[in-house]
Amino acid sequence: MTRYADIPKPIRSGIVIVDPERGTPQRIIVLQFNPDTLERSVAPQAAGGSGDSGGGGSGSGDRNEALRLKGPAQETWKFTAEIDATDQLDVAAPDGIHPQLAVLEMLVQPTTAQLRAASRLAQNGTIEISPIETPLTLFTWGSKRVMPVRLTELSINESAFDVNLNPIRASLSIGLKVLTVSDLPAGHRGAELYLAHLAQKERLAARVAVGQLGALGLSGGVGGGIGMGR
User: Residues 83, 31: contact at Cβ < 8 Å?
Assistant: First the structure.
C-alpha cells in the first residue's frame, strides 16, 4: 500500500544569489508554488545585422553572413508566481508577505550602503563613478536548467491584506534575461555557468533519435545530397 511518505516531493523552482568571487550562495529564494506555465523566447544573434530584414539585396557581403552567428542566442523567460501567506505557517503575522516581496525587489535595487558609498565618492569630487554591481543571480528550474539571469520585469499584483494592510496574497509577473558569454566578462563565474547551461542543452539535443529523409518525402541524392522523392 502506498504511503504518503513514499510520494516524492516536487522540486521547487527558485532563484539563487551567488557571490561571484567565491561562488557561494548568499541567499536562496524558493518559489512557494511552481508556475503553471513558462513563456520562453530564443532569438538568434545573426551576423547580418540590419541587412537581414530582407527586401532588396544590400550587397554580396550579407549573403556570406546568412548562416553565421555573432554569439549565443538571446533568451528570455516570463512566468507568473504566486505568494500566499495563508499557505505558509512560518510567515510572521505582523509582516504578512512583505519580506518575500522585499527579497525579490532587492534583486533590482542597490543597497543603502552602496548608494551612500556612491554619494561619498561624488561629494569627494570623483569624476567617474562606476555603476553599482549587483550579485550574480541564478534561476533554477530543475537540475537541467540552472542559468545566470538578470531580472528585467517585476510586476506585483497584491490581492489580499490583513487588518494592518500588510499584503498576504500576491501574484508576481517576472521577466528574466539569460546572461551569456556576450553579456559577461571573460572568466566571470556567470559566464562559466552559462557555458554549463549550454552544454546541458547540447547533451539533451544529442539524445533525440535521428530521423530519416524518407519520412519527409525526400531521398538521398548523388554524393550524399538531398533530392526530391517521387
Answer: no
Phi, psi dihedrals of residue 185, rounded to the nearest 5°: -70, 155
Q: What is the rounded CA–CA span in Å between residue 52 and residue 58?
A: 9
Q: Report the amino acid identity of residue 228.
A: M
Residue 152 is assigned to a structural domain of this protein: yes
For residue 135, what are the domain limits? 4-45+69-205
Tens of pLDDT along the chain (230 residues) come to 556 566 678 899 999 999 877 888 989 999 989 999 999 999 998 887 654 444 444 445 577 888 888 899 999 999 999 999 876 545 456 889 999 899 999 988 888 988 898 888 888 877 667 777 788 999 999 999 999 999 999 999 999 998 899 999 999 999 999 999 999 988 899 999 999 999 999 999 999 888 888 888 888 754 556 666 55
Q: pTM for the complete prediction? A: 0.80
Assess if residue 84 is contained within a domain.
yes
Q: How many domains would you assign to the chain? A: 1
State the DSSP code for 67: T
Within 8 A by CB and 6+ apart from 66, the residues are 48, 52
Classify residue 172 as exposed, middle or buried by CB count within 10 Å of its CB (0-12, 13-18, 19+). Answer: buried
Alpha helices in the chain (DSSP H): 60-64, 98-105, 112-123, 189-206
Q: Where are the alpha helices (DSSP H) in 124-210?
A: 189-206
| 96 in Cβ contact with 84 (< 8 Å) | no
